[in-house]
Amino acid sequence: MIGYVTIGTNDLERAKVFYDAVLEPLGGKRTFANGERMQFYAASDTPGMIAISKPYDEQKATVGNGTMFGLPAASKELVDAAYAAAIAAGATSDGEPGQRMPTFYGAYFRDLDGNKVCIFKLG
């Protein structure tokens, strides 16, 4: 249902290194870029994409209150691996990996720009 989501950043190069590490356990790889402003990521097993981007209006990227991005993982172990990669790459924990509901295992962190991200496994 979602084609892509854009996550704002104030330092694109730093964000690329961060998301390279976080998305690798989930099968995410760099796809195409829009110059020095935007980098897209995709995985072969899902149609949706993630873009990290400097804001088009050239203003400072800010965090949306209540905004969060949920990224699916194929297993609980991959949730744990992506979360560990995020923390190792400089993320701040916003909830360690764990069973949140009977059918939802998730981990939460804030990226280098403060954006909230959840890595989850359903079932």
Walk me through the structure:
The structure is a single chain. This protein has helices at about 10-25, 75-90, and strands at about 5-10, 30-35, 40, 50-55, 70, 90-100, 105-110, 115-120. By secondary structure, the chain is of the alpha/beta class. It has a single domain (about 5-55, about 70-120), classed as 2,3-Dihydroxybiphenyl 1,2-Dioxygenase, domain 1. The protein has a 4-stranded mixed β-sheet with strand order 1-4-3-2, covered by helices on one side. A hairpin with a 3-residue loop joins strand 2 (about 30-35) and strand 3. Helix 1 packs antiparallel against helix 2. The longest helix is centred in the middle third of the chain and has 13 residues, at about 75-90. The relative contact order is 0.23.
Write the layout of secondary structure elements.
Elements lengths: L3 E5 L3 H12 L5 E6 L3 E5 L6 E5 L14 E5 L3 H13 L3 E10 L2 E7 L5 E7 L1
Parallel strand pairs: 1-4, 5-8
Antiparallel strand pairs: 2-3, 3-4, 6-7, 7-8
Compute the average pLDDT: 94
Q: Give the structural class.
A: alpha/beta
Strand order of the largest sheet: 1-4-3-2
Task: Evaluate the radius of gyration.
Answer: 14 Å
Largest sheet: 4 strands, mixed
The counted number of beta strands is 8
Helix content: 10-25%
Beta content comes to 35-45%
CATH class: Alpha Beta
CATH-assigned fold name: 2,3-Dihydroxybiphenyl 1,2-Dioxygenase, domain 1
**First-residue to last-residue Cα separation:** 20 Å
Number of domains: 1
What is the number of helical segments per DSSP (H or I, 4+ residues)? 2
Give start-end ranges of low-pLDDT stretches: none
Shape type: globular
Using the 3D structure, state the CATH architecture.
Roll
Instruction: Summarize the helix and strand pattern as letters.
Output: EHEEEEHEEE
Annotated CATH homologous superfamily: 2,3-Dihydroxybiphenyl 1,2-Dioxygenase, domain 1
